[in-house]
Amino acid sequence: MCNRYAPPRPEEVVRRWLPRQASVNFPPGPVFPRAQGPFIRAARDAAGPERELVVGQWALVPWFAKAAKLPYSTNNARFEELAAKASYRQPWARGQRCLIPAEWFDEPCWETGRNVWWRFRRRDGDPFGLAGLWNTWVDRATGEVVESYTMLTLNADAHPLMRRMHKPDPALPPEAQDKRSVVPIEPEDADTWLHGTVQQASALVRLVPESVFEAGPA
After folding, report:
1. Are 102 and 2 in contact (CB under 8 A)?
2. Which of 1, 26, 113, 202 is the most exposed place for a label (fewest CB within 10 A)?
3. What CA–CA distance (Å, rounded) separates 11 from 25?
4. What CATH number is given to the structural domain containing 123?
5. Is the peptide bond before 30 cis (omega within 30 degrees of 0)?
């Protein structure tokens, strides 16, 4: 599970994902759960397959929530549970997918017996576009509109690098730890992720090779 990351500079977000826009603006990182961060989604009011940048809460607020501040965590969503879990079922079925721009993200490594934060970047120097879901929630009492998003994760027990992250559960065998990895979406797949069908998007949810990452103690 990822609980800390930093978006790239606004001009880099424009260059990589929003070339039709002159500029964008969003709070500087790092971003923590329930803080404000940028995400990119299919433009809601466009006639064609265009994109828009939105700033929202990193912790998805589901439609049935009574308040934007939830008593449980929704900043990460297990891909394997999207179709069944109440918080994510509707956004996933509706195609409310997004890209989360990230210059780096941190994960805890417990190989020494204590938490050592590792920082992950792309080895080629480009930013990540991490797979996510978004939702727009409206407070029925006040009319307040809250944009929010969650970051997708995938089981990484077999991944040579990501399986080393997170505190192991001594009650479970190595092959059943449910270690998690974020899901980078490559630039050439961005339109399919944002505008494609559920089936097309599902095919993009996969672990990337270890060689993609440059990682080590932060």
Report:
1. no
2. 113
3. 9
4. 3.90.1680.10
5. yes
pLDDT tens for 41-68 read 999 876 668 999 999 999 999 999 999 9
Count, residues in the chain: 218
Residue 217 lies in a domain: no
Phi-psi region of 185 (alpha: psi -120 to 50; beta: other; left: phi over 0): beta
Residue 218 located in a structural domain: no
Contact 62, 74 (CB under 8 A): yes
Quote the CA–CA distance of 17 and 196 in Å, as a whole number: 17
Tokens for 46, please give them. Answer: 């466009």
Domain range enclosing 12: 5-212
Helix (H) or strand (E) holding 147: strand 145-155
Backbone angles phi, psi at 133, to 5 degrees: -120, 150
Give the DSSP H/E element, type plus range, for residue 133: strand 128-138
Domains identified in the chain, total number:
1
